[in-house]
Amino acid sequence: MSEPSQPATAPEHQSTRLVIGAVAVTLLLASLGQTIVSTALPVIVGQLGGLDHLTWVVIAYLLSSTVVAPVYGKLGDLYGRKIVLQVAIVIFLVGAVLSALASSMTFLIFARTVQGLGGGGLMVVAMTVVADIIPPRQRGKIQGLFGAVFGVATVVGPLLGGVIVEHFSWQWIFLINLPLGVLALVVIAVALKPRADRVQRSIDYPGFVLLSGGLTAFVLATSLGGNTFAWGSIEIIGLIAFAVLALGGFVWAEARAKEPVLPLSLFRNNTFVVSNSVGFLVGMAMFGSITFLPMYLQLAKGISPTESALQLVPMMVGLIGVSTLSGFIMTRTGRYKILPQISTFVLIVGLVLLANMQLDTPAWQVAAFMFLVGAGIGPVNSVSVTATQNAVPLEVVGAATAGTTLFRQIGGSIGVSVFGAIFASGLAARLGDATPAGQSGSFNPQAVAALPEPVRNMVLEAFASALHPVFYTAAAAAVLAFCLTFFLEERPLANTLRREPEAEVDAEEAATAAAVGAPATVTR
Question: Which stretches are transmembrane (predicted)?
């Protein structure tokens, strides 16, 4: 198939700009929901107690938002994006208010779970709305801009959280979502048309339950394994066994469902499989880098948590700039295969350079390495969403979009867990019994600074050395992702809103479509 000779033209819907703005706001809401709470956790624990449950404030949101992503994608396909997106925003805001009202750590964890149930829908349905109003050729630069929103939230979230808890109360890190959420609700209500048809639908309840249960067990196993419980413990083995059984039952149920949550036909689509495999591996590398780089900066360079967040700016500049650039390239050329090939190669280079960092590596070099990592990550997300939406039929575009989010977040969850285990075992092997009793596990700048100088130097050297295999492992995942990009089939991006892939439409349907020749109407 030859590519179109002219660039895509912008859609002519009067409300398009409003909808894109509302989608950007909802994506910002979902992204901030993940990142803004991190710097406020010490203050929250100081008031509510429950230090042993600290990580669950983060895990609860990640878990619930990951589990519901495919459910929201399918519900959007069945009932239209507008109503499903509005429901997701309302659930997210309810969770935010409950979080602000929390008087105990247990209640806060519950509230964060509710907030995640809405946050998972914000990401998936918002990105799918774009598929309803923007042709695939034009969609590339929009997805690139949305990638920039995620990048901004990654840096702005922790900084904003730090400013809020320093000058106001921690409750405002949740209440700040309210005006943004209300604004998004109002704009969506005005700009996005409701679905016109009222077709009776068949709900795949077994699929919902089995997928949610399987993903819950899987994310819990990867989040708790090596931290709360040993990988070989009965708890982790039981969670993994339950996940395997539930996901196996899910495959069986989907093969028989009238309206499957995640249609198995998607796994016969080259673009869906290859894009999500690459996204899974890049998700591992991305979350692993973001998790361990601040630790390196705070300990090796002796800077504060806020300063370490600022030091991540080069990575975000690379991510935002190259993600936006790749979107414009897709719109201009109608092609996308070469973008993840180049970006994953750049990611390999950046991660290998990070793997060779030493305690005395100059700050400007670390910044350059982080820029390369960000540049390598940026195009993958925008390309995978755009390419997948272009390659699947209209009736499953929501489920397919949810799949891209699902696999990326699962990859991130596994990456953090695996890299954490690699780092912990490497550090333990290098330290041995050299640190004073009771201090080997107190790995924070204050505890390390309090050590005698010879011990402190040895601990810092061990810390830097233990990070090397982490980044090398991330680089290996990026190598595999780079190899997989060569198996991606490229379909020229369409200039119209019609999204049924050409290869999947039979001759009679193609002839009918050619005779009609009208683009789809925005009814979602």
Answer: 18-41, 53-72, 84-110, 116-134, 146-165, 171-192, 204-224, 230-252, 273-297, 309-331, 338-357, 363-385, 406-429, 470-488
Angle formed by the axes of helices 105-133 and 81-100, nearest 10° = 160
Neighbour-count burial of 205, counting CB atoms closer than 10 A to its CB (0-12 exposed, 13-18 middle, 19+ buried): exposed
9 burial type by CB count under 10 A (0-12 exposed, 13-18 middle, 19+ buried)? exposed
CATH number at residue 182: 1.20.1250.20
Helix axes 56-79, 16-35, angle to 10 degrees: 150
- Whole-angstrom Cα Rg for the chain: 23
Give the model's pLDDT for residue 245: 94
Q: Are residues 430 and 308 in the same domain?
A: yes
Percent of the chain with pLDDT over 90: 10
**Tens digit of pLDDT for each residue in 325-372?**
887 888 788 788 888 999 999 999 999 998 888 777 887 888 899 899
pTM for this model (two decimals): 0.72
Can you give the length of the chain in residues? 524
Given this model, what pLDDT does residue 508 score? 38
Which residue shows structure tokens 């196993």? 221
Exposure b/e, 412-450, CB count within 10 A at least 16 = b: bbbbbbbbbbbbeebbeebbeeebeeeebeebebebbee
CB 75 within 8 A of CB 396: no
Of 142, 160, 193, the residue at which a domain comes to its end is 193
- Domain containing 49 equals 13-193
